[in-house]
Amino acid sequence: MRIALFVTCLADTLFPDVGKSTTALLERLGHRVEFPEAQTCCGQMHVNTGYQREALPLVRRYVETFEHYDVVVAPSGSCVGSIRYQHATVARRYGDEKLARRAEAVAGRTFELSQLLIDVLRMEDVGAYYPHRVTYHPTCHSLRLLRVGDRPLRLLRHVAGLDLVELPDADVCCGFGGTFAVKNADTSTAMLADKMRNVLNTRAEVCAAGDSSCLMHIGGGLSRLRAGVRTVHLAEILASTQDAIFEPKGRGAAWTEERGTSGGRRRRSEGGVGRRAGPRRRAENRA
Amino acid sequence: MSTFLGLPTAPRGVGHLRGSEPFPVAARRALADSQLRRNLAVATTTIRAKRAAVVAELPDWEELREAGQAIKAETMRHLDRYLERLEAQVEARGGTVHWARDAAEANAIVTDLIRADGSTEAVKVKSLVTDETGLNDALAAAGITAYETDLAELIVQLGQDRPSHILVPAIHRNRAEIREIFLREMGDVDPALTDSPAALAEAARLHLRRKFLSAKVGISGANFAIAETGTLCVVESEGNGRMCLTLPRTLITVMGIEKVIPSWRDLGVFLQLLPRSSTGERMNPYTSLWTGVTPGDGPQRFHLVLLDNGRTAALADETGRQALHCIRCSACLNVCPVYERTGGHAYGSVYPGPIGAVLSPQLTGVEDNASLPYASTLCGACYDACPVKIDIPSLLVHLRARHVDEVRRARRLPSAEAITMAAAAWVMADPRRYAAAQRAGKSGRALSRGGRIRALPPPLSAWTRARDAPAPPAMTFREWWRAEHRDRP
Predict the structure, then answer these.
(1) Alpha-carbon span B28 to A188, nearest angstrom
(2) Mutation site for A-interface testing, chosen from B335, B477, B478, B485 by largest number of A Cβ within 10 Å
(3) Which architecture, in CATH terms, is B1-412?
(4) ipTM associated with this complex
């Protein structure tokens, strides 16, 4: 299947490994991934901060970039939530009914990663291998906007070597909330403290989720406390196989020394300190 | 102007819809109160579990929610018609109806009615709307003493405190604090009073019994008003309500105009939704219904005060009017991760929590409660819990946009935030500008040590006060893609 990747501005800019893993996973499963370079941002931050007028051109850009694809995937529950439940509203607010209809059509073909794998590609076992103790934070917009339910957990239960441990109060928000984390930093931190307490109580070494934004929040807190737990996106786990285990080399660091510096034309020797190769690149190196 | 149709909002200087400081400032203080944090966590966790259990018992819960939502939406669409029907029915059965444009008018009407009765005291059923109008203060200024008879409201009143929860106004107090308040304020209490719940309740009973027997005027709010017969309904748990509603010779009920429902059949839906969502009970212990005046039985004078106080302004906003569907169950407070940590006082209004964050700014005009629509992570737990399916997260987003648009109209100079947002949108509207900004952002790598950034300049310093930030990678995803796919279109 030809699948367009909407990588999201956050993953593009700060967490490129998430995009690389999504690509590697889908290609491993035999699909053709395309990355339309005209894409930028879904506009969620603008909409949720009250700047809907500024979000309108971003809605138009998303629609124009992706309306020619049958299937679009994004490794983010909240960006897909914004595309599905906000884009048309923004267009209508400014009287553009035509754009609203087009936005609804594209939104119907835009899927969060676990939705794509289970609902469209009909797979639960993607052949992944990830030998770690992992707990999963389901993220609010995946749960309550997109209703992905237990899809991510079904995918994780099929990952060989993975020790999945239930996160207490998993459905409670981590306190990120976009600009909430800055506008209401104290309340956000209080919520984060409880989320971190639950994560640490699981004794997991990895806290996973389907949203880089929530992971940036939880991971930022864990890193500050030197808690010894790292955050990993669902795509990175599912992209990992026995031939290409996806993990950071910086032992003991919650966040790796260097994120996403490998790949492309700049190959380095395998296993270098601080290096974090994309799984596909590793597999190719091996071959 | 606060609303696009120019409809009046709740006036300043009267009542309790506005806080004295913005939410983040008030929240900071509440977050530091470890006793408050524990009380709230225990109380909300307990009531969440109770609610979940009784809701799970009903196979048609979702249908009930749909019905509740539909009834409310239909009522709001024809609110004028149902209010006039209610007025006609109440008057036909011996009651008198008064229309109050705002809090000041409602307070004046109630004060005049008590004076006309010749009384200087009144007993009160727990009522949010009279707290909204600041009725007790207005009565006190007129030399009339109002006695709160709901246990929690009594604790709040005696402690010269403010309610912090819709259903459990003294949720922020523990029993040791309550004992201390009773000993200090009741005057006639046994000095050997312990802090056991039974002893505290008994002390309140003895204290209140004297007021019930002496007061000639009762004041209540209303949970529902049935237009087809002019019947008022109050639900409660302690029995104080029925004392206030039956013993005095004059009964004054103040209700927001959105409380009207068309028929008795509709009441059946709400009496299933409300107790389960509110106290986590299948049925509330006391449901009082009264219609006009019955000679020789109960109050012989009945006055109904219909209050607007910004409700018509909310009704004028087609998206925002959903907030008027609220039946004041407080389920959204109990599931809200923000409320659970800050408590109700931080919201500054008698309506706290998620519903308060969408209701208070509409009643006062968004500019007077501008921080409230942002006091949420938009996690959506409130929407799932709401028995009448108010889409609170979407309303919050809508009110944020209203606020930003109003500020834009009112100010010549845009705020730093507005400039940042406009710049970000301009950058992101074009992939070349966007990629250039990404490259520029890589200078942030200079701030990083070991892949993490421990301090960022304002306003992002609010992030790095408690969390590290990730260092930008050497290569963005799109740079990597381009390098990988030179051979592909």
Answers:
(1) 11
(2) B477
(3) 3-Layer(aba) Sandwich (3.40)
(4) 0.94
